[in-house]
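Hi team,

Filling in the usual template for the complex we talked about on Friday. All components are listed, including any nucleic acid strands or ligand strings, so the model treats them as one assembly.

SUBMITTER: L.P.
PURPOSE: interface mapping
COMPONENTS: two
RESIDUES: 331
SEQUENCES:
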Amino acid sequence: MKEDPAIVRRSIRIYRMLLRLYPSAHRHRFGPEMAQVFRDGCRTAHHAAGWRGVASLWLRLVPDLCLTAAGEHLAVLKGTRIMKQKPMLIRTSNWMLGAAIVAGLVSGALAQTPWAIVLCAVLTGLLMVAHALTALRRPPADWWRMWLVALFVFIYYGLLAPMWAKLLQDTGAGSQAWMPPLIFIPLFTCLAVALFKSAQFWWNRARPSRA
Amino acid sequence: MKAMSDETLNRHLPLSPAVFHLLLALAPGELHGYALMTRMAELSEGLVRVGPGTLYTAIKRLLNSGVIEESDQRPDPDQDDERRRYYRLTDLGRRLLQAELSRYARTVKVARRQGLAIEV
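RESULT (copied from the run log):
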């Protein structure tokens, strides 16, 4: 049998190397066949148009190779790692929430200067609003979580706001007009999300076919 | 059982141009990868030219969903490379292709009713 021209041999070698871009399972199952298909295509292209044919084949194949290799890796991630780690991610988010609640309470209680008070109020508020908004994507069965968060926000500001107001008055730190919006925005957001999740949960329970 | 099969069919529809031409190329009989690729280009008059990456991603997906299967037969070593794998349509694959062709036919009918002249 006639030996392949150098450009074809080199192309086949490079293509075999590039197959390493695919996940190993895909490569082991289809790698030899893909190399075979490439070899046939490369021989035909060279036979038809010489090195120009091989070059045009490469121009078509590089995007094909990159896109499908990326797609296969994504499929592996979606099919295994991320899906398996989802419960762990949820557990982590619960721990994060617990840590945020403790950190918020401690730092809020220890705040002694006007700047520290504003920082605690703003940070805790933002954290709770963010948590409430992400909770919209959680399963409806988690409705009770949002009531707990709303209760925490109520207790947090309910306990600390009078203390902060007194402290600010004693230190003569000026207007306290910023306090009501900072306190009520997170509280109302959490309450609204808690109500929404509860309604979603009870609606699904009443009509299981729609769940 | 039939309802279940119809549900499976509908889940695959509409087919992408690459998958449609792949199934169309396999309709007369089994083919190996390279023959499949060239046949797809021929059937689409050069419009669907896929590389090995796209071809084997589609083959993998279709094998997993039972639309095509690998043939047990191996070519005669004197005639062809015996390491080649051949693929063929399953019963589900054949029905899927029929369903897609019927969908095309319905679309053509609707387009004609809309006053569009279509040459077949």
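MY TAKE: Chain A touches chain B at residues 26, 29-30, 32-34, 36-38, 40-41, 60-61, 64-65, 67-69, 71-72 (CB under 8 Å). Residues 6-69 of chain A form one domain.

Thanks, L.
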